[in-house]
């Protein structure tokens, strides 16, 4: 593996996941506005929001150091997770040391960081938001993990690059199709948008986990949420639908950008056309999906 | 005299019958017995209010208003208590619907109710001094009492439970009210309420500073959404008391605006309910459908809201033929859109997941708390003031009263959707049948010491106005009971055992109208001071 390739692809990944994510968020806001017969904000509004929040006063509701540090931790974890996804070619930038377990670990840290922030803030709304987020994470992330393990069993390797390569050359089999479908249906919960924005439910919990955040910390958490949206879309498009792939780095990047635009469009349609679920209803949905995805592991073990 | 009155004759001092009202005079110590006898007849509690006669006969008159739906009569229990030491035994343990009314009477008149389950303050603010009763006649309307700092007693959470405060500032309930949910995990185990943060004392102002023709404009400002019901109800009460017969055309115009108001109020509610469950697309689209209705009202009266067209004796504007044509086009447009909206809501499984079997109010509880409007109809109580006590043009119009048995939020939604379509039907009928003629009659002197009860079916339910005319060109007592006032009191039942996620939805499902309930105060945000309209300012408002 050449060093230049690692540096270039790492740069591209970080650019897409961190720098472009507010633009994608702006697009989803525009789509939502059009469905709701509104004019909507300009596409760059999410950048303005983050910049404005960065310059705002940082109110410290508690002296707990966890509360101060964890918002920044969530941005760093998102950046790390983005380096494990193949975008420009079939191998991710950090393929040599990152496998699916590291990936799952890192994306869990993103959620955990926000849960810690909320629990440290000593606000009853944040507490409830945190407990809801915990339940949601515990129920939805196994689905992604099981789907990745299905890929690993099929490919015979835990490295994400190897899984994608195997999937790209061998094409889908029954177990992978089932895993892909399960990930697709859990995508909205992974992203944390309506009907699954239960931990932040504005109307029920007054933004729940985010209620005590302000200034740069709030900007970081908002930015994390936007980046997470792009990251999970990339997980789905690059790992579970790796087609079409060309030999040219730049064209691959453009194709993947198009793919996540389509996916985000579908996701904002779902967001605009559905009400929020209650936590028990969401858990029921996720657990049913988890059972389905478990069958994909058995199918993979049977080489189907 | 009707059969049901026979048992009462034993306890009552005197029974009078006047139009559809039966007035029963009772001794203070007999009140509980009388109410117990009445409750066997399946009566509904409407309101309890007092009238201060301290300067005339050293008495405070308590008026208990009841309603007998099947015979369509009002029963008024009149009790005189001593104004120096006004005490009477509470009826709240027999009729829980009277809890708030008794607390309000205690606040404003100083009547002590013995054995009341919750004798805390309801209306008065926490810094109001003890022993000052604003609705007594010796209290001047512009008097400023000294402030007395005292914390309000709220229910304390038990060990292992947390308090979730909803309000007074809350993103999905943009109104000043404090719902204190005591929760265990996600489950609500106890509930407390503190409201009336913006009580203005509109009744006091009307009784002391305004005349009959100025009050409709004040009454219309009681509510920010359905103000027209208040001015109509007030005008009807005065017209009834003074035996004024208003022209048929004025009656039709009143009915027309009442129905337009119902349509836009129900659409507003559907939008808000969708917003509470996070379905913002439905919220935006419902409010888009609502907009032409507001626009039409603006074209006819000059205002989107608070039309200011009601006076005692009729209405002050006329509806031109081109308005009727425009209105016809608009309602046939929105009828189509509302039918589509109804299809969308009926076919949406996720909405039903959130609405069905949530916030159930059983028929028995609904009767006990005397809830009204769509909340009562969703629990199977067939009550609609347009049918029970027809007013304005309703005696000549045909309408049906939808009811459901489930009593959950889904039933309330369906009832409201149905009512919009019924309102559109009524509007169509009004448009074809509206008679020609004048729109108001000249009102000369209004006789003193006459009383009248008037009902209007507001979008939120049965609205009640009571008036006792006074000797000096203004009412001696004007009492208002908004529908939300009654519906609020069943919230403790609805919220018991619900989850936090459902709490805003349940509170929203009764369509609470805070300004109606509290008869609110005008807040001048710039100077951060409360302001009461002076006479000249009201004249200006009237002139506009």
Description:
The complex is a heterodimer of chains A (304) and B (544). Chain A has one domain (3-301). The mean pLDDT of chain A is 84. Chain A has 12 helices and no strands. Chain A is mainly α and 304 residues long. Chain B has 2 domains: 3-153, 2-Layer Sandwich (Beta Polymerase, domain 2); 213-511, Cytochrome-c3 Hydrogenase, chain B. Chain B has helices at 6-11, 31-39, 54-57, 99-109, 202-209, 215-220, 227-242, 248-276, 280-301, 321-347, 349-355, 363-368, 373-378, 385-388, 409-433, 483-488, 491-495, 503-509, 514-518, 535-543; strands at 14-18, 21-26, 44-53, 59-68, 73-82, 87-89, 112-114, 162-166, 178-184, 187-194, 310-311, 314-315, 451-458, 461-469, 475-481, 522-524, 529-531. Chains A and B meet through helix 6, helix 9 and helix 12 of A and strand 8, helix 8, helix 9 and helix 11 of B.
Rg calculated over all Cα atoms of chain A: 19 Å
Question: Separation of termini of chain B?
Answer: 49 Å
The total domain count of chain A is 1
Report the β-strand fraction of chain A as a percent range. Answer: under 5%
The overall pLDDT average of chain B reads 83
Low-confidence stretches of chain A: none
String of helices and strands of chain A: HHHHHHHHHHHH
Shape of chain B: globular
Number of helices of chain B: 20
Question: Biggest β-sheet of chain B, characterized?
Answer: 5 strands, mixed
Give the beta-strand count of chain B.
17
How does the overall form of chain A come out from the CA principal axes? globular
The class by helix and strand makeup of chain A works out as mainly alpha
- How helix-rich are the residues of chain A, as a percent range? over 70%
**Total domains of chain B:** 2
Write the layout of secondary structure elements.
The complex is a heterodimer of chains A (304) and B (544).
Chain A: H1 3-19, H2 21-35, H3 45-54, H4 65-82, H5 100-120, H6 124-155, H7 160-170, H8 174-191, H9 202-205, H10 215-240, H11 249-272, H12 279-301
Helix pairs in contact in A: 1-10, 2-10, 2-11, 3-10, 4-5, 4-10, 5-6, 6-7, 6-8, 6-12, 8-10, 8-12, 10-11
Chain B: H1 6-11, E1 14-18, E2 21-26, H2 31-39, E3 44-53, H3 54-57, E4 59-68, E5 73-82, E6 87-89, H4 99-109, E7 112-114, E8 162-166, E9 178-184, E10 187-194, H5 202-209, H6 215-220, H7 227-242, H8 248-276, H9 280-301, E11 310-311, E12 314-315, H10 321-347, H11 349-355, H12 363-368, H13 373-378, H14 385-388, H15 409-433, E13 451-458, E14 461-469, E15 475-481, H16 483-488, H17 491-495, H18 503-509, H19 514-518, E16 522-524, E17 529-531, H20 535-543
Parallel strand pairs in B: 2-5, 6-7
Antiparallel strand pairs in B: 1-2, 3-4, 4-5, 8-9, 9-10, 11-12, 13-14, 14-15, 16-17
């Amino acid at each position: 593996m050449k060093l230049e390739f690692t540096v270039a692809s790492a740069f591209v990944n970080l650019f897409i996941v961190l720098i472009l994510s507010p633009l994608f968020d702006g697009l989803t806001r525009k789509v939502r506005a059009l469905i709701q017969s509104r004019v909507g904000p300009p596409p760059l509004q999410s950048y303005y929001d983050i910049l404005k929040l960065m310059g705002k006063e940082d109110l410290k509701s508690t002296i707990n150091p966890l509360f101060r540090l964890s918002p920044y931790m969530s941005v760093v974890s998102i950046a790390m997770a983005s380096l494990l996804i193949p975008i420009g070619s079939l191998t991710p930038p950090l393929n040599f040391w990152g496998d699916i377990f590291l990936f799952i670990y890192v994306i869990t840290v993103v959620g955990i960081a926000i849960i810690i922030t909320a629990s440290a803030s000593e606000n009853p709304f944040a507490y409830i938001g945190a407990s809801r987020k915990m339940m949601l994470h515990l129920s939805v992330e196994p689905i992604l993990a099981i789907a990745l393990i299905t890929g690993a069993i099929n490919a015979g390797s835990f490295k994400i690059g190897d899984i994608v390569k195997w999937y790209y050359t061998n094409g889908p089999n029954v177990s992978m199709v089932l895993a892909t479908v399960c990930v697709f249906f859990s995508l909205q919960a992974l992203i944390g948008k309506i009907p699954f924005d239960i931990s932040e439910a504005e109307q029920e919990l007054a933004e729940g986990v985010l209620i005590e955040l302000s200034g740069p910390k709030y900007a970081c958490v908002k930015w994390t949420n936007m980046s997470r949206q792009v990251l999970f879309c990339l997980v789905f498009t690059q790992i579970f639908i790796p087609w079409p792939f060309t030999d040219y780095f730049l064209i691959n990047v453009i194709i993947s950008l198009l793919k996540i635009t389509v996916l985000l469009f579908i996701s904002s349609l779902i967001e605009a056309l559905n009400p929020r679920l209650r936590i028990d209803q969401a858990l029921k949905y996720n657990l049913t999906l988890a059972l389905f995805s478990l069958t994909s592991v058995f199918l993979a073990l049977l080489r189907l | 005299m009707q059969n049901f009155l026979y048992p009462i004759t034993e306890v009552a001092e005197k029974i009078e019958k006047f139009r559809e009202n039966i007035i029963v005079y009772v001794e203070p110590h007999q009140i509980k017995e009388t109410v117990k006898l009445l409750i066997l007849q399946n009566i509904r509690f409407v309101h309890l209010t007092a009238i201060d006669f301290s300067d005339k006969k050293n008495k405070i008159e308590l008026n208990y208003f009841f309603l007998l739906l099947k015979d369509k009569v009002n029963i008024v229990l009149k009790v005189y208590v001593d104004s120096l030491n006004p005490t009477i035994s509470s009826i709240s343990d027999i009729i829980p619907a009277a809890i708030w009314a008794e607390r309000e009477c205690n606040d404003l008149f100083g009547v002590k109710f013995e054995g009341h389950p919750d004798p805390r303050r309801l209306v008065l603010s926490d810094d109001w001094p003890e022993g000052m009763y604003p609705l007594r006649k010796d209290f001047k309307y512009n008097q400023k009492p000294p402030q007395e700092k005292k914390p309000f007693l709220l229910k304390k959470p038990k060990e292992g439970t947390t308090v979730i405060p909803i309000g007074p500032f809350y993103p999905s309930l943009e109104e000043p009210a404090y719902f204190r949910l005591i929760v265990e995990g996600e489950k609500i185990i106890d509930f407390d309420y503190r409201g009336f943060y913006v009580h203005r004392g509109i009744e006091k102002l009307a009784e002391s500073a305004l005349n009959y023709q100025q009050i409709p404009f004040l009454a219309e400002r009681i509510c920010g959404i359905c103000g027209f019901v208040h001015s109509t109800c007030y005008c009807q009460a005065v017209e009834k008391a003074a035996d004024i017969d208003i022209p048929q055309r004025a009656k039709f115009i009143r009915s027309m605006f009442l129905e337009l108001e119902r349509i836009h109020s129900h659409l507003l509610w559907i939008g808000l309910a969708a917003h509470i469950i996070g379905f913002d697309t439905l919220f935006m689209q419902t409010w888009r459908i609502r907009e032409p209705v507001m626009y039409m009202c603006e074209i006819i009266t000059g205002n989107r809201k608070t039309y200011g067209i009601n006076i005692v004796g009729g209405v002050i504007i006329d509806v031109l033929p081109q308005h009727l044509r425009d209105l016809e086009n608009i309602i046939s447009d929105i009828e189509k859109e509302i039918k589509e909206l109804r299809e969308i809501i009926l076919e949406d499984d996720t909405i039903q997941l959130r609405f069905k079997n949530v916030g159930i109010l059983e028929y028995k509880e609904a009767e006990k708390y005397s809830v009204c409007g769509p909340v009562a109809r969703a629990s199977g109580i067939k009550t609609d003031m347009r049918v029970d006590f027809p007013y304005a043009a309703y005696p000549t119009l045909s309408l049906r009263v939808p009811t459901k048995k489930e009593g959950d939020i889904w039933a309330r939604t369906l009832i409201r959707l149905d009512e919009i379509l019924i309102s559109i039907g009524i509007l169509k009928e009004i448009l074809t049948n509206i008679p020609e003629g004048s729109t108001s009659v000249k009102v000369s002197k209004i006789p003193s010491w006459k009383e009248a009860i008037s009902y209007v079916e507001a979008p939120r339910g049965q609205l009640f106005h009571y008036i006792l005319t006074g000797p000096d060109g203004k009412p001696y007592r004007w009492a208002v009971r908004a529908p939300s006032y009654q519906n609020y009191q069943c919230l403790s039942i609805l919220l018991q055992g619900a989850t936090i996620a459902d709490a805003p939805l349940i509170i929203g499902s009764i369509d609470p109208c805070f300004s109606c309930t509290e008869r609110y105060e005008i807040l001048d945000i710039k100077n951060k001071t409360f302001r009461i309209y002076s006479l000249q300012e009201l004249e200006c408002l009237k002139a506009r």
